[in-house]
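Posting for a labmate who doesn't have an account.
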Amino acid sequence: MKETWEAAGQAVAGLHPVQGAVNLLQVLCFVIGPIVFFTYGAVAATRDAHYKTLKFRVVREGRRPLFVSRALSSATAVTALTVTALLFALATTTAVHVVVSDRIDIRLLRVPQDISLTDALPTLAMTITTGVFFALLGMCTAILFRRPLYVLPVFVAGFFLVPILSRFDPRNLLMTLAYPHMEFIGGFVPPAPRPVGESLAALLLLLAVAGLLAATYAVESRRSAYTT
């Protein structure tokens, strides 16, 4: 009975405006975001090749500025989409809270207080960080293999079906960075990551992203833009 009442209190806490928005960011960070942003990075990076406009942009802009602009546009899109999702979630959860707040009797429940909006900023930052990582991963893999339809099914299958291989698996490193900054109250709670120092995890992820970007640029710079 005690566990039932505690679970009910946690569920009611999920109806708090800021907490409900944070719950959405947590799901976006650990489940939905990787697929959405990987897909965006893969599709956006190969639009020029798909529409046969790559040769014109290479001549007009140059390979290096074009490659950098792709990476920056992916990071900008992830940031804009995540902030938009947060604002939409805040508006939705606030409306729901106003509608149901007077209809639920919580006098016998222990309901955690709603977190402040400033407390949600670390969750927002971590969601953007993981989104940028997967967007750049999608961009690089799609450029290397030239077609996003080839890499999307492999990524989705690997992300969901392949278990985390070690504590240095990129998925575990991302969770190591994001997990301590999440507020799991009355919502989605993923399993805790395997222990890795946050500084080491951040350094390894930065090196992995830098290496992947460098390798992708090196391969693409040796391709002819006129054969696409």
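Reply:
Got it, the structure tokens are right above this. The mean pLDDT is 77.
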